[in-house]
Design brief:
The chain is of the alpha+beta class and about 120 residues long. About 30% of the residues lie in helices and about 15% in strands. About 10% of the residues are buried.
Length: about 120
């Protein structure tokens, strides 16, 4: 996604191919389980499954182009000599322009490997 891009529903704008959008987003959701670098962007674009517009499809295609340009960038688990548990979180309070809800993200490392 573009830096500071705020996707929202704008009344009266052109709708795009709903079935194609939903198929692409479903595949990206599945892929985001091993490609955490796209997880946030996929979470944002999945909010617009019910009323998508050209900007939303453009964001999906940007993610697809990113994936094509970065093959093999998935998660690599490596063996470490420790099982230290680390957890991090971040919150973006009421930044969603559609419903003013907060966005929360977190991740957990066990032995230096990402698990959630």
């Amino acid at each position: 996604m573009q830096v500071n891009q705020k996707l929202k529903i704008v009344e009266g704008t052109t709708l795009t191919d709903k079935e194609r959008y939903q198929r692409l987003v479903e595949k990206l959701i599945y892929l985001s389980h091993t490609r955490f670098d796209i997880a946030y962007a996929v979470g944002i674009i999945s909010l617009f499954m019910h009323k998508l517009q050209e900007d939303h499809m453009e964001a999906v295609m940007r993610i697809v182009r990113y994936l094509k340009g970065a093959p093999g960038s998935g998660i690599i688990f490596k063996r470490n000599d420790h099982l230290k548990v680390e957890a991090y979180t971040d919150t973006d309070w009421t930044d969603n322009p559609n419903d003013r809800r907060s966005t929360v993200g977190y991740f957990t490392l066990v032995g230096g490997n990402l698990v959630t």
